[in-house]
Amino acid sequence: MSRNLLSSYLHLTQPLKIHKKSFSSRLMLGTGKYRNLKEASMSVMNSDASIVTVAIRRTYIKKLNGKSNLLDGLDWKKLWLLPNTAGCETVEEAIRVAVLGREIAKRLGQLDNNFVKLEVISDSEYLFPDPYGTLKAAEYLVNKNFTVLPYISPDPILAKQLEEIGCSAIMPLGSPIGSGQGLQNLLNLQIIINNAKVPIIIDAGIGTASEASQAMEMGASAVLLNTAIAKAANPEYMAEAMKLGVISGRIAYLSGRMLRQNKAAASSPSEGMFIK
Questions:
Q1: At what angle do helices 235-255 and 3-12 cross, to 10 degrees?
Q2: Domains of the chain
Q3: Which residues are CB-contacts of 52 (< 8 A; sequence separation ≥ 6)?
Q4: Which pLDDT score is estimated for 257?
Q5: Rounded to an integer, what distance in angstroms lies between the CA atom of residue 75 and that of residue 72?
Q6: ∠ CA(100), CA(106), CA(110), 5° rounding?
Q7: Which residues, 6 or more positions from 22, have their beta carbon under 8 angstroms from its beta carbon?
Q8: What pTM was estimated for this model as a whole?
Q9: pLDDT digits over 220-236, tens only?
Q10: Is the pLDDT of residue 196 over 90?
Q11: SS3 assignment for the chain
């Protein structure tokens, strides 16, 4: 991106605000499925992401086994950790892992980090989040002063309920996690975005940069993705593409799309034409 374009973009848009924190990037990255740690860390760097989410349950197991993981290889003075409860099937599991995630964030030096990406997933085949379990766990964690970002199916009623109990952002899926199917339920996603007073972060299902841009053009506050980069033939290049896709979509949204019309409209004026 040219310096002039970047300057114009930064003037046009505002930082992403979640609870009391501000973030320069609207692209968030997951850290799973990469072929190796070097590929993962380079992808995070190329993406310019401000927020990186880590599955605390899996990370903790690796720590116990003495294996290296991405927590050790990233600069947490520049990045904000978003602990997530991936792998939790019950409310109780999700709450325990959320507490552990907060402690890990503090050990990384982020003493005011109470963020948690809340996932309660009991469906092992399609990995759809449990709406009742998510709502119940979210209410408990909000009351314990967590900054809760719940991962949900694109359900406008549930999204509003989670916002009303105090969640700081809502993360509806675009399509099943890891599927790369793009945005499959545009109507519900648009309703969630239109009705929300908190940031809406499209999470899961995005496969390429045009789909990330599409999410931002709809008015989403941010995009979180993992598999689209980690499983690309060249993850480091795809991370760069996703960064530009999110920026492009955000600029397009703020610029205001032209209205669709049923008829063609000539771009050249008809006045003053030479008549043969």
A1: 50
A2: 25-254 (3.20.20.70)
A3: 28, 29, 30, 31, 44, 74, 79, 80, 81, 82
A4: 85
A5: 8
A6: 130
A7: 15, 16
A8: 0.88
A9: 999 999 999 999 999 99
A10: yes
A11: CCHHHHHHHHHHCCCEEECCEEECCCEEEECCCCCCHHHHHHHHHHHCCCEEEEEHHHHHHHHHCCCCCHHHCCCCCCCEEEEECCCCCCHHHHHHHHHHHHHHHHHCCCCCCCEEEECCCCCCCCCCCCHHHHHHHHHHHHHCCCEEEEEECCCHHHHHHHHHCCCCCEEECCCCCCCCCCCCCHHHHHHHHHHCCCCEEEECCCCCHHHHHHHHHCCCCEEEECHHHHCCCCHHHHHHHHHHHHHHHHHHHHHCCCCCCCCCCCCCCCCCCCCC
Phi, psi of 22 (to 5 degrees): -115, 140
State the Cα angle at 216 between 213 and 217, rounded to 5°. 85
Answer whether 54's CB lies under 8 Å from 71's CB.
Answer: yes
pLDDT tens for 66-107 read 545 667 778 899 999 999 999 999 999 999 999 999 999 999
> What does the alpha-carbon distance between residue 25 and residue 240 come to, in Å, rounded to a whole number?
13
Residue 109's pLDDT band (boundaries 50, 70, 90)?
very high
Which of 17, 20, 33, 117 is flagged as catalytic? 117
Alpha carbon separation from 85 to 37, 40, 104, 205 (Å, rounded):
21, 20, 13, 18
Q: Is-catalytic flag, 263?
A: no
Q: What are 3-26's pLDDT values in tens digits? A: 565 555 555 567 899 999 999 999
